[in-house]
TrEMBL record:
<feature type="region of interest" description="Disordered">
    <location>
        <begin position="1"/>
        <end position="23"/>
    </location>
</feature>
<comment type="similarity">
    <text>Belongs to the FMO family.</text>
</comment>
<dbReference type="GO" id="GO:0004499">
    <property type="term" value="F:N,N-dimethylaniline monooxygenase activity"/>
</dbReference>
<feature type="compositionally biased region" description="Basic and acidic residues">
    <location>
        <begin position="1"/>
        <end position="10"/>
    </location>
</feature>
<dbReference type="Pfam" id="PF00743">
    <property type="entry name" value="FMO-like"/>
</dbReference>
<dbReference type="InterPro" id="IPR036188">
    <property type="entry name" value="FAD/NAD-bd_sf"/>
</dbReference>
<dbReference type="GO" id="GO:0050660">
    <property type="term" value="F:flavin adenine dinucleotide binding"/>
</dbReference>
<dbReference type="GO" id="GO:0050661">
    <property type="term" value="F:NADP binding"/>
</dbReference>
<keyword id="KW-0274">FAD</keyword>
<protein>
    <recommendedName>
        <fullName>Flavin-containing monooxygenase</fullName>
        <ecNumber>1.-.-.-</ecNumber>
    </recommendedName>
</protein>
<keyword id="KW-0503">Monooxygenase</keyword>
<keyword id="KW-0285">Flavoprotein</keyword>
<dbReference type="InterPro" id="IPR020946">
    <property type="entry name" value="Flavin_mOase-like"/>
</dbReference>
<dbReference type="InterPro" id="IPR050346">
    <property type="entry name" value="FMO-like"/>
</dbReference>
<keyword id="KW-0560">Oxidoreductase</keyword>
Amino acid sequence: MGSLGRDRQALRQPRRNGMSKSKTQKTAAYKCIMLNLLFFALDNSVAFQTFQGSFQIKGLKCSRAKVMHSEDFSALDNLTAAELIKTKRVTIVGSHKTASDIAAECASANGVKYPCTMIKRNAHWFLPILWPPMLSPLRWGVSKLIETYLRWNLPLKKYGMVPKFSFLEDFSSCQIAMLPDKFYDRVEEGSIIIKNSHNLSFCEEGLIIDGENRPIETDVVIFATGFKGDEKLRNIFESPVFKNNIMGSPTATVSLYRQIIHPRIPRLAIIGYNENFSNLGRSEIKSVWLSHLLDGKLELPSIRDMEKEANMWADHIKQVTGRYFRRACISNSSIWYSDQLCKDMGYNPRRKKGILADLFIPYAPTDYADLTSK
């Protein structure tokens, strides 16, 4: 097994200097190739496209502003990132966790003198504090209670940040995020300006959006418009057959046995594709399961049985996540999923000490910490 870069090289060797493929192709044999891939893997960058995520973009080449994706901004070291936004008019395109975090960082650095503009199309639910998990029988009622609390506690209506969809739908599709500290305080003071638009046009001064006659003067534009993890999976393959197998139907999520193994590509293990509110913890449990498989401590069922189980999960994900089914979120069934992996490995899925603790204390990644030492 190796890193994604080595896996990509093993699966596809590019041509060089016009030489024929037969002279440059290299073949490597692996027992299993493991991809450590979070869903947030391939940026939706509009810097090189006409259409960026949910926004229609025009006139990019006319702008003097520096344009980048949030992935590129996050890759900068702290000093370089601070210098990039210092005393700059920054515009963030997007409205989810990454966009709000970058906006808060810019507001903290520049204050009201150089306000950060945040352009959104859709609003999502944010939590000012960490909320306990919702029990299935009470889920709908609790979600409505949380919606009421957020509408009352935060100035959502004042700034056009009331989501069109329910809290439960955002929760089930892993769209819930933690609100940056004092975010709306910064909006109130004017260091963050929120605007709504479905279209963007670049001009020499900056950006022109829907309903605005004057351009938004800006020095830096950062697109925080999401990622396409499924396309990254598809693009690592040269074979059209493998590409079609891994992507599946455009109306369904990528179907993986135990959310790790593709039934038609059993020597390829994918860790971290499915989303959860604890991605790192769940990925570690998957890695333990995979180590058991490679050590011969458990066996894969037939292709037909693997496809049956994978399709069952795909149907469930599509049913509960709605329009965000390609994100493959399993937040509302993560404990059930972890139970499956524990049973496969021969471990007790009940990780708490005592029946009452198992029933009433929320499960966390620390409950599975001892699996790595077994």
